Structures are given as structure tokens and as C-alpha cells.
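User: Batch of two.

Assistant: Item 1 of 2:
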Amino acid sequence: MTIGTTIAIGTEIPRFQVKAVSGEHIRQMALILRDPNPIHFDLDAVAAAGLGDREINQGGVTMAYIVDMLTAWVGSGAALSGIKCRFRGNVRAGDEVIAGGVVTDISGGAAVCDVWADLADGTRVLDGAATVALP
């Protein structure tokens, strides 16, 4: 965010876009997070669970797209003082994800924002609220 930019209720946060979630990244994150759920790396397990034929992104990684959006907007991850999200759907390898948000309240030098992540077709896969300190 440029210092001096006016932030008000209704200000839209610049969107953050992931053009195509990488199946390799999903598998790597399963290793890093020690996440044994096979829907992140075993296509047979994905199919057996009735979830299609592509790896399923970790919910926390999808939420990280929101954090990336907020960090780019305010200029520092340290400005994020809280985030609460509800996971509403799955993100699969190859999906395009668009994170967005809007300021809903300002007080005490902080902005409260509604935040979300949508698939390119408009399906909302995550929504919630975040609080960030304003510069």
C-alpha cells in the first residue's frame, strides 16, 4: 500500500491471483507439513474419496493466499494481527484461485476486512475476516 493512500470502509483490497495451483507444490507442502492425508499426494485416494482426479490443496495453503494478499496490500506480514476463516470447498491442482477482500471497519489504526478466496468460476472456497494495522 502506498503511504498516503486513503483507506475507508468499502475500500477493496487488490486481488491476489494464483493462475494454476501446482500439484507438485501440494505434494511438497504435504511433506513439509507432515500431513499424511493421501488426498494431497495419492490420486487413487482422491478418486476413492469421491473428490475427482487431482490433488487437493491443503486448507492452510489456500488461507495463505489471503495472507499473501494482505501482506502485499499493507507492505508487511507483521501488520496482520488476526485472521479467521471458514473453509467452504476444495482447491485442486490446476485450479485458478483469486483472493479478495474489502474493508468493513476502521478503528484504532487497524482495518477489519472481509476476505475470501474464489475459484476462477466464482465458486467461493474460503471466506472470513482479518484485521491489519494500517501504516
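Item 2 of 2:
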Amino acid sequence: MSTQEKVLEEVLVEELTSLNNEIILYNDELNTFDHVINTLIKVCSHTAEQAEQCSLIVHYNGKCTVKTGEYKELKPQCTQLLEAGLSAEIV
């Protein structure tokens, strides 16, 4: 294995381990589609299309991963989702 291959392999492993957390959004009967979509756009920087797709997945499947990344970056976003009345957790 060349030095270049080994360095590239180490970088790829580091990238994979740094993005190992997810915010999971759960379905509820309280929030409207518009509220969920607008909140995902504001909090998670989703496009309108991404937010709409996530809201439909949550509605039909009961949950959806709405953001992935490092825990320290996801924590404030998850808190904002919870403060907006949505049901979410970091896994």
C-alpha cells in the first residue's frame, strides 16, 4: 500500500466517523405540514423540496432522518426543533 493510499484511507475513515449522528424527526398529530416544513427550512437549512419530502416521509413512515453530522452541531438544531413543538431526537 502506498503512502498516498494510506493517507486517503485515513481521511475517509475520519470523515465517516465524524458524521455518525442523526436527528430523527417523529410523526405527531399536533403539527401541520406547513409548520413542519417551515421549521425544517429555518432550523435545518433545508430547501422547500427537502423539507416537504421529509414531512411526507415522517407522515407516512412515522419518522425520518432530517440531518446528519457531529453531535455538537446537531444538538442546538434538535433543541430548536423541540422548542418549535416537534418531536425529535439525536441518535
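The chain has a mean pLDDT of 90.
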